[in-house]
Structure formats: structure tokens, C-alpha cells
């Protein structure tokens, strides 16, 4: 089968970064400027579409042929743009994504970063002028540009730059080919290719947005913010009460010397200040609340049919292979804490904000609660998630039998954990009994300590705010570890197995079909599903495991360190991800339309009475994790929410 490598350069007045490729390619002025391509190992050609060159018939036929595999770096972009430009379907099963291949091997997500990580020569990396050329030809001119006020730059405006742009486009195909060749010794498993195809199908379908709800919230928030500003000006006499410097000076005049005006600092000051100052701080808090940011993001990414597409990034979490959120960041939406969320939605849609404030309080809070509910079903949503999936997986891996028995029984893990931690009969840890307060400690310890977390993890999860005192935190950690000895042992066994693999070069078993192996300088951790986690350029330095990866803070490709408990976290989350993937494939094959999935939850839009069927599919045993007790918690709703 022939392979066709592709890269394109495009123009659209819609922002690609803010709106995503689907809305970007729907813009009336969207066009493909350049199309670089190469069959197999043949020389790369560049078609200058912007200057009237036509796509050759042989290329047109190849683009829609089942017998030609199309490859690109971040293939979703090329696939979506070409489908729009040519008016032809671009089925994902005909495409391969080199970016996904790189991510699966623990490499950076961008083309330049992968080339640098692989040590490819300068001739195979992106041109240093690439960003400037994209800015010049692919993005509208700024209104104040000194170019005769034209709205965009065309090839004729700078033929020298245009030739550089053509060379740049060609070089991207050369780079993508070089990466593909280098990575070919570790091919993408067919099961992952099929999962990427399902991911593309889900992203292509998108999520339906309640535009009336979104428009009403954005419109009213502007009026509301203006009202808050006028009140703040009247109380302070400041020209801009939103200015940190001006507000600090005003507070000093009131006898208060704030060290900062962050959300946490404002909360502290609210507890001690007088009435007028208190109201000003409340206004500051309300004006700084970004309750409409998500709604504005929905508006920017909206396609013509009121759907937002491209919200999921396949293999976005490098260490586990989980998906990451894009555009709306659906993995990070506020929880629903309002009891009558349906009434709040209806009041917003009717524009009755006076009643809304009377019943629910200030609008910034309630608006943040309504973010999820802006995602609506065409028919009905059936939402199902794996209950406590990580706790189940890590207990299964470690053979922590009492935890597995809990999930096979009443499922009350936090109560049973507290019972073991504090040696209290389970019958006493019920509502109405004083011992019930131990449940919160059991819950906190379960969430904070499962991957080696200690006092710091408890604190960061809010232990002190829950009323616990610092002196008892180390005792809680110790009690949890004593209650879960097999999980603790798994941390150390995993670290030892990885170090043995690095020392000997042999494959070393860890647990339940999980093993570690060193190949070509990369540590691979095989999972029960057959997938492998990858740690690039792994080494043992002073008995510490190091590898090259993207630092979460700096976003740079750098040396990172890991250890047993962290590796257990990666493995656990990876297995949980593979369980969700297995369930998603089942649901898709059964004809259910998955519109989105978040963490361990899947959202289906259907006109069928299918709750029982979907629950069964989510709870069905998976043959490569025998004995793992899975349970799908399922509910139905017209709009997205937490049950």
C-alpha cells in the first residue's frame, strides 16, 4: 500500500488557537495556500494553490483512495482542512498521525520539539522563520499595519517571503518523513490506531451548545460588571477600582496594608474588615471572577450548526495516554453544587436575572455552575462513568484483597478504609454516629495517599481547611499505609523492577501482566491491554530513575525524575484509560453516539431507552484484567451535568 505524506499552509480570518480547526476551516475566507506532498520516498512537491496551481488528478485520487495511507504531523488538521477545501470526506481510517506516534513514545507534541529530541539535523527541522511567515501569510493583518491597510498579505506582496514559505511547507513534509522513519521500529499498535479513528469520529461529531443560554449569560455579565464597577467607583472614588495598585493604596488609606489581592488574600481580608471595606472587597472578588470565560470560549469555537468540535486531544497526557481537553477544557469544568440547576437554566434562558439573583445569589457564582449545562443533547444524554476506577485498579494491581472485596460488596471504600485505619467497627461509621466523621479522614487519605502522598498531599487536598490539625496528618498517612500494605509494597516492587530492567536490559515482571523493559534507550512499561508506556532517554543516576520529558511547569523538554509510587500512578491511570477505551469501542460498535468523554466518564446522545444496556456494557468484564471489579454509574439528562 502506498503512503502519501502531506503538509498544508492555510489562511482564515478565524483564530486557529482560539476557535480550533473545525470553526477555522468553516470561515468564508478559509483557503489552502500551499499543499506539499510526497508519495513513499519520492521527492516532495509543492502545489501553489494561492497562485492558481491545480491539484493534480493523481493526488486528488490518492486523497480519497482506500488504497493510499495519508500521513501528517497532527493529521486532524490536514484531514479536516482538506475535507472542507475539496468538499470530500476524509475518513480517519485512511490516515495516520505522526504526532500521536511521537506522543506514544514519550516525545514532545510539536514537530520542532520532536526533531530536536530525536537529534535530527537542522535541515530536517522547521525553518526558524516559519512562525514569522505564518504570521505574515496565514493570519489577517493587524488594523494598524503599515501596509496600505490591506486585510491580508498575498504572495504578490512579497514574492521573496512567499518562496521561503513554499520551502518551509516542503520542509515540514521532509521532517515528518524523517520522524516517521525514526519511529518506525516501534509501530503504533493497531488497537491504538483504531482508537484514534474513534477519537476522530467523536471530535468530528462535536458537542451541541445551547446558544441562547450562552448569549444571555455573556450579555448580562457585561451589564452586571458595569454595575459592579460603578458601585466600586462610588465607594472608593477611584478611576479604576480593578487596578491592583489603586485598590491597594485605597485600602492603606483605610488602615489596611494588604500583602496582595489574590483570591485567597481577599478571602482572608473579608473576615476582618469593616462594612464599607468589606463591600469593596466583595466587589473586587465578583469583578475578578472569570465566570464567563468558558462561555466565551464556546462562542469562539462554535461551528455553523451550533456545535463545538475538537475538544479532545488523543494521547494528550503523555505519561498515561489519557485524553486532554482542548478549547473548552472539558476535563476542568466547574462542579454543579446548586440543587435546582434546571430552574437556574430556565431563568437564564428567559432573561429573568432578577429572580435568578433573588433565588441563587450573585450571578458570577451561578454562571460558573451553569457551564456544564450549556452542553445539551439533541435527544437525551445517557452519562455513565466508572465508579472509583483508580482505587479499583490500584487495588487489583497490588492484590489488596479487602479493597476488592469492598467493591464487590457494598462499595463503601471510605468507610471501610476508616474502619481499618482507626480500628473502628464498620457498623459505627454511619450517619448519626460520632464515628461518622472518620469517613472524611478515610476519604481524604484514600485520595491523597494512594500514590505515595504524605502530609504535603493531605494539606494540598484541603486537610487543614476540613478541620484537621497539622499534628495528626502524619498519623493519618501512617494509618492509611498500614491499612493498605500491598499497595505500599507495590510502590517499592515497581521501582525495583524498573531499576532491574535498566541494570540488566532484561524484561522484568511487575504485577498482573505489567512489566518493564529497556529498548533502544527507552523504558517501556507493558500494560495488560498490550499497550506500552514509554519513558525516553531513561537512565539511572545516583540510583534515581531519570528520563527526558516535558516539564509541566516550564513546558520544556528536560530531564525529569520518577520513582516507584509515581510509576504506579502512571500505570494505574493508564490501565483505567484502557478500560474506558475498551468500553468506548463496545458502545460505538453497538451503534451508540459518543459525543464526549471526560476522565472516566462517557456521554452518549441517544433517542433510545438504553440506560440498562449502557450500564451493562460499562460494567462488563474485560478479559485482560480478570478479577477487576468494574461498575458503571449511569444517569439520563437533557443537558450535561454531574448527577
Automatic annotation (TrEMBL):
Entry EC no(s): 2.7.7.7
Cross-referenced InterPro entries: DNA-dir_DNA_pol_A_palm_dom (IPR001098), DNA/RNA_pol_sf (IPR043502), DNA_polymerase_A (IPR002298), RNaseH-like_sf (IPR012337)
EC class: transferase
Keyword vocabulary terms for this entry: DNA replication
Reactions mediated catalytically: DNA(n) + a 2'-deoxyribonucleoside 5'-triphosphate = DNA(n+1) + diphosphate
MF annotations from Gene Ontology: DNA binding; DNA-directed DNA polymerase activity
Top-level taxon: Bacteria
A GO biological process held by the record: DNA-templated DNA replication
Residue stretches making up the DNA-directed DNA polymerase family A palm domain: 368-610
Gene3D superfamilies referenced in this protein's UniProt entry, alphabetically: 3.30.70.370, 5' to 3' exonuclease, C-terminal subdomain
PANTHER family attached to this UniProt entry: DNA POLYMERASE I, DNA POLYMERASE NU
Protein name in the entry: DNA-directed DNA polymerase
